[in-house]
TrEMBL record:
Residues 127-252 form the Guanylate cyclase domain. Belongs to the ABC-3 integral membrane protein family. Keywords: Membrane, Transmembrane, Transmembrane helix, Transport. PROSITE patterns: GUANYLATE_CYCLASE_2. This is Metal ABC transporter permease. It comes from Streptomyces hesseae. The chain crosses the membrane at residues 14-36, 43-62, 68-86, 93-113, 133-157, 177-195, 201-220, 227-249, 255-272.
Amino acid sequence: MTALLSSSPLSQPFFQHAVLAGTLIAAACGLVGYFLVLRAQVFTADALSHVAFTGAMAALAFGGDLRLGLLAATVAGALLFGALGRRARPDDVVIGSVFSWVLGLGAFFVTLYTTSRSTADGSAGVSVLFGSIFGISAAHAATAALLAAGVCLVMLVAARPLLFATVDEAVAAARGVPVRLLGYGFLAVAGASAAEATQAVGSLLLLGLLAAPAGAAIRLTDRPYRALALSVGLGVTEMWAGLFASYTVPQMPPSFAIMATATTVYAATFLIRRPVPRTC
């Protein structure tokens, strides 16, 4: 019995840290991702993945904390996109004009980090790109969980006015809803979520963690609050499934397992036929 308990993944400290951070990160991404999809701002999340990589490598190049660089860069980048767009809604031209340059800047910081610092860790860039959730420490897991919980709280408080501003921006503005301020606030929260998601699945795959659960939820129901809850539930379930799958098959990286699960669930929604509303 003791041997069985010791072989359980939940008895391993590194797995406990991954579950703690991963659960809250997935919940935050589910909430933010729903509005990214609903507001047609998924491309913004893609751009933030490039910003996350650049911010992390810039922090390392100048001797700073990687996680602080991630958070500062993604939030600042999201606000910049909003400032360049109309009513804090960046368009594709703005994003496309900026994010490729940002990725090139990231490559510069990688070179600067590896050539100018004698103690440089050559695997740091790979860790940022693909995530390292099984390598997260207890302190960093707690910090990530607290930040993600803060994102969840902000999104729950702002959900109703943000939904109103998303569905009918003109009417919301006429009713006194601070549409522009909400847009900036949402982008800042999306940037924080991108920074947290990078720690779980890496900057290359964070778009999937933000978009796949939300996309599946929207395909399964037209009711906004039900879809919001479903997006969170799917995100957390997919996170758990990916972590357990990666633990069971050590050759499978956790980021791949998480995103493979999320993609499979999203693809499965195309097999579900939703009832067609009757017309009188």
